[in-house]
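hey so i finally got around to running the thing on that chain from the lab meeting. sorry it took forever, my laptop kept dying and i had to restart like 3 times. anyway pasting the input first so we r on the same page abt which one it is
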Amino acid sequence: MDWFYFLGFVEFLIIIIALFSSVYFVYLIAIATFLQATSRPFLLLFTVSLFFLALTHGFQTFEFLIGVRPEDSTSYTSSMRMYVWSLLHEFAFALHTFALFAFSVDRYITAKYSIAQSLRNRIFSISIGAVISILSMIYAQVIHLVNFHIIAITCLNIVDMIALIVLVLSSKFSIKHYKNTAGVTSLEQRFQISDVYIWTQALIPPACLAFLLKFTYVIVVWMLQTVEDSMSYQITFTHFFQIVLDLFTIAIPFLVSSNHRRLNKLKLRNRGRVNPIDPITHVKTLDGKPIHLKTTFHDHFDFLKNHWK
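ok and heres what got predicted. didnt touch it at all, straight out
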């Protein structure tokens, strides 16, 4: 049994790294300057779901290390703590899917119609986030109380697939809309469209990877259910699948940030096509009206957005 405890401690180490990685991802979203306020709640819920997935897996692994048998994980009536960890794990699993779906729909609507960043729309986004959390809680209860585990996960995978399709369409439409609105729409609307492109491009790779992982899990477990006395194999595969999810949690913030670095390099290359702002304090228009420049590009952008007609 020494090898069992050794693997358990290695797995626990992976979980600890996944927890720190998920916290780092939350930090990336908190400091994101190109993320609009209406879509921020959905992406925050997405990052929080990764944290809870790693956290609940860590609690379950700790239960195994202190003496709970792995086969007891299928019958949570024997351990109330395991039942609670399982509920939280399924809640995070559903929250991951619903949050990505809401974020994709928000990005598509923003790319097509532009959403005003008003207080009313921000409150509406927070309300949608609360509804998503409630739906995730319902899913966690249903998957334990009703005997259609695979069907529930399959439905969740369908939502994942739709979210991925909408995310890709949002990215494609934002490029087309940005080219067609040059000199037509306001600077704020074009900024929203570019924001859609930046974040959809950053999230499409991890979203594809997450969908492939979940889809593979459903197919394998579905095949194992057709075999008699395959419960131990399902438990083993589910356990390793959770480890893969932890590795995914470790990798996802670096995937997102690397995509942003490429977009920033592309933006810097494109910026060379226009004249940079001279390091002076003010300029004058043709009619002699002075325009005072700001100290940073962000302040200057906000000034132009609020004053230019």
